[in-house]
Amino acid sequence: MFIFGGYSDPKKIAKITNCAIKEIGKRLTYSFVSTAGSLVTLEEVVEETILCNANEDPLKCESFDGQFLRQVSNTKIQHNSGCMARYHGQALIIGGQQTNTVEILEFSPYNIEKFRLLQDGGNVTDNEVIYSDFRLDAPIVFEAEIDFCLN
């Protein structure tokens, strides 16, 4: 289990090992504070954590696989105090203080990723997204079957 950032050291990466917190000697590229940013762990070939909404540049995202950091695609919209979740094995970023926009980080066959808008304000661009016409400030997301929300 890893610990990322925080107010006292926003670029820290630490690991919990044998009930102790140990810094691992690596630093985030961008400052990360959980009240503004969000993260999700994806389990593909290698487990990796995607962190978005860096303090220096609120559109920036980066990934950490336990050993290496790399920048991933920027979000199209700022999701300050938004939430991230896993959706069909991909990173989904939802809402924020000034937006109800939903974006998904998609990977192409050539391993190029980009964020695609699924819901842009009041315009739903993907029929699998639950529509919200209100601001989504610090939402909490739980995993449920999509049929759960359909009548």
Automatic annotation (TrEMBL):
Domain of life: Eukaryota
Species whose genome carries this gene: Oikopleura dioica (Tunicate)
Name of the protein in question: Oidioi.mRNA.OKI2018_I69.chr2.g4066.t1.cds
